[in-house]
Design brief:
The structure is a homodimer of 308-residue chains.
Chain A (H helix, E strand, L loop, with lengths): L1 H7 L3 H13 L2 H10 L7 E6 L6 H14 L4 E7 L6 H7 L12 E7 L6 H15 L4 E5 L5 H7 L4 E6 L5 H11 L4 E4 L7 H18 L9 E3 L8 H18 L1 H39 L5 H8 L4
Parallel strand pairs in A: 1-4, 1-5, 2-3, 2-4, 5-6, 6-7
């Protein structure tokens, strides 16, 4: 399979094609993964998440530049919400990343959120494996928004960066708090804005509560400041990423997280596959009954799984 | 089964217990659904979504008050992100709804996002069925944030309200645009804020694009303004909800959406159930191999589903 070999040689076109196949559920994608898998497990997967408006794209941009300055090759998987007529708006947002597009040491790829039901995590993880096999040292996964999807996605990372921003209301802080558990590095971006000290204090408080609730945790998440659109903060963030990587290597956490990620991938694939098959075998008439509301979902499941 | 009868009598305690069982995957929950299902299909399910900070809770509060003024009984399913130490912050946000807690015509229930993998949609839909059976005329599903989860959840509604707010950046508008397809009513909240005209124009443009891309659509989504914390806008929103309900009744869309929701529920249940069973039967050693990265996920799936 030439594409697997090309991909392992770091050829961009081969990587792009493999990711498209995997996104589309084309069986050739699975074949590629099987061939490249023994060559993966080396890339450092870094998740970046936070509320809309926190400046995640700009922050990703300066982190990429700093990693490049340290001679690391960087892949970026940007998660875009899917909409037939707004794709352009999102892509426009990526224009800021344009300065990296001529750099062969950087590869940027967008993944749509269409498909759902665990599909986002699965596609993202597949893309990370491909970039890993292509020899990128770091793979950054940048999400939009903050929701369960984002939590699932960042749970797949070795290191997760949670981005906050001054001046958002209590509700936002609460939403952010929901993913606080997942983060290893915290960054308050747009730190030149009014309201920065209050936001900083909120994060400090949350991190303090987290420490108290986990006395055995050996990694203490740093709280950093950034002004991404002025290029400020990248050095400290990349230092923290390197420190967390060293911590993971020492504790055995790096291989452990990689393994758990593969495990989650199997479960996601299994859910997709089995549901598709059960419906294909016996489901159509049962589903029609449910759609007509003549049969309740729980009774339908018993029929579909032969436990009626 | 006394609890099903109590629930159909509208007893709050019975409803709360059934929802807890369903959340926990307790088999008694499924038994309750089977019994009450023939008595459901009447409640108007209304989804409310939008970015963090858009004031969705306050807006929900004034919509509930207006529906009550029109003598409708209202259930609210509030989706809260789950975090062991921030539950309080979120609940605090619900304090605004406190004025309704002594009103027997209102029942508010929070659903956690823990569990994931389609579990949020499933739990939310189960809760809607329970509130429907209890005789609530309207069931409002209020989400946090904007992500695929939110899209899944609002896709379950008969009528979806998308809430925007002035002064958020382009990224937020883009995120909002991702769920624009799902909405039937658009509200710009906090319309007394600076930046309202620009946000209003953005929404108008997006709605115009949507109309052009769907020439056959018979419902034209209204764009409304609200200042929820001053109580402004509720009358117009509830009028629009009623107008959309009338449109659904005329077009047959009400029953159709209810049916599709049940269908989605079956697929979600099926994915959960089958994956659990496949792992229970044959999965442990295979999963261990995957976790040790000795086996790739796609080969693991072939072994688990007997297609190796």
């Amino acid at each position: 399979m030439g594409i697997a070999a090309d991909l392992l040689d770091g050829k961009i076109g081969a990587g792009a094609r493999a990711i498209t196949w995997l996104d589309d559920g084309d069986p050739r994608g699975a074949e590629v993964i099987k061939r490249i898998f023994p060559h993966t497990g080396r890339a450092h997967v870094i998740g970046i998440t936070g509320p809309p408006g926190a400046g995640k794209s700009t922050l990703t941009d300066i982190i990429v530049a700093e990693l490049r300055a340290r001679e690391q090759r960087v892949g970026v998987v940007a998660i875009d919400p899917s909409s037939p007529f707004t794709g352009g708006a999102i892509l426009g947002d990526r224009v800021r990343m344009a300065r990296h597009t001529l750099d062969p040491g950087v590869f940027i790829r967008s993944i749509g959120t269409r498909g759902s039901a665990g599909g986002l995590s699965r596609s993202t993880h597949d893309a990370c494996l491909v970039l890993d096999a292509m020899g990128f040292d770091a793979v950054i996964v940048e999400t939009v928004g903050v929701g369960q999807d984002e939590i699932d996605v960042v749970n797949l990372a070795h290191t997760t960066i949670i981005v906050g921003v001054p001046g958002l209301g209590d509700e936002v802080q609460a939403v952010k708090a929901g993913i606080l558990e997942a983060g290893e590095i915290f960054v308050v971006n747009k730190a030149d804005r009014e309201g920065y000290p209050a936001t900083q204090r909120q994060f400090e408080l949350m991190l303090h509560l987290r420490e108290q609730s986990r006395p055995d945790e050996t990694w203490r998440p740093p709280l950093l400041r950034a002004v991404a659109n002025a290029g400020e903060g990248a050095v400290e963030i990349v230092d923290a990423i390197a420190a967390h990587r060293a911590h993971l290597d020492e504790s055995g956490g790096f291989a452990q997280r990689s393994g758990l990620r593969e495990r989650e991938q199997v479960l996601a694939l299994l859910r997709e596959r089995l549901a598709r098959e059960a419906i294909a075998h016996a489901g159509d008439s049962i589903l029609a009954e449910v759609e007509a509301r003549k049969l309740d979902p729980y009774s339908a499941i018993e029929k579909l799984t032969g436990q009626g």
